[in-house]
Write the structure tokens for this entry.
Amino acid sequence: MLTQQECDFLHSRMQGTIIEALGIRFVPTDDDVAVAEMPISPSTRQYLGILHGGASLTLAETIAGVGSLHLTNYDESLAVCGTEVNASHVAMSATEGKVYGKARLVHAGKSTHVWNVDIVGEDGTVISAERVTNRIIQRKQV
């Protein structure tokens, strides 16, 4: 879904945000899945040393949001806003390495996009199954 050029553009726009702070990086793909990776690090772990559920939610909302930006062709007159995120944490994560958010589009309407996002470990184990709904709104002109 995302080209290398899109990933480079997104990385430049995410400087100084939670996305940069958590080490989230977008990954180019040739199919219909939007993908991002995030390290399991002190910034993303909870007290047991595994991935924090909140970090999983952040990764899911981030990659679904980027998928919606892609679908709107990065139209600056539109804003993509997450309106709902829910998750089922189904497996414990590793304590090191990376996890990947893989977002598949469920619905693309004029004003809403719905995504299923799996957070998976490097071994392919699904750690968290999440659904993200984004609202597509017209930005107010200044």
In short: The helical segments are 4-13, 18-21, 53-71. The mean pLDDT is 96. The first strand starts at residue 25 and ends at 27. Strands lie at 25-27, 33-39, 78-89, 98-108, 112-121, 126-138.
